[in-house]
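User: Second chain of the day. Same drill as before.
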Amino acid sequence: MASAITVELCKPGHVHRAAGKGGSRHTVFRTGEVHGRTTGRVREVCRLVSLADSATVTANLWGERWSKLVVNAMANGISACTGLPSGEMVRNYALRRFANRVGSEAIRVGQALGYQLEQIHDLDPEIIAKAGEGDAEAAKLFYERRLAEVDRLSGGEHRPSMGQDMVKGRRTEIDLINGLIARKGEEVGIRTPANRALTDIVKRVERRELEADPRHLMEVRLD
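Assistant: Same format as last time:
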């Protein structure tokens, strides 16, 4: 699994990476077995991907995967239905708050499912969850981290993968990201209005019923 690798297929055979190497600051690749045991093959995979960037073996693959799902949930669909790259999404206060609410719901669903979540955007997931639930101190910390992160990653001009899909006319993965969070939330009895609203809006933009526009999310009323 890769985290914060920030890549785009610009043309056949040419991949552009917007972020610099993670190195010791951020572990990009996490390799693990679904059963959680450390095996020879997972160590070998870790060795191979470490030739590209920092890597580690994890015994918590499912927790890592849900944590990455939270990251994707907060960015991909928002880019797809607004048409904005990462930097513009994060610098817009209303969209930043909406993304936080999406992530907060996703974290609570993951916790209810029994996953041990890892750090998300280099923060304890509890901070992000509380920020989305209205904790002002947690929100300040999270927003400062996001803004600093965007400035570090080439100014945030990169477009998340689902935003790229929408521009190129490809089918999006919204049902497998925010739609999945909404379905799992229903299973465990946790409301996910932000994820449900985002899933619906992305599908309408995908069907060309709506044009991509930040106002779609800025006008959403969740409570």
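Residues 45 and 107 are 28 Å apart (CA to CA).

User: Great, on to the next one.
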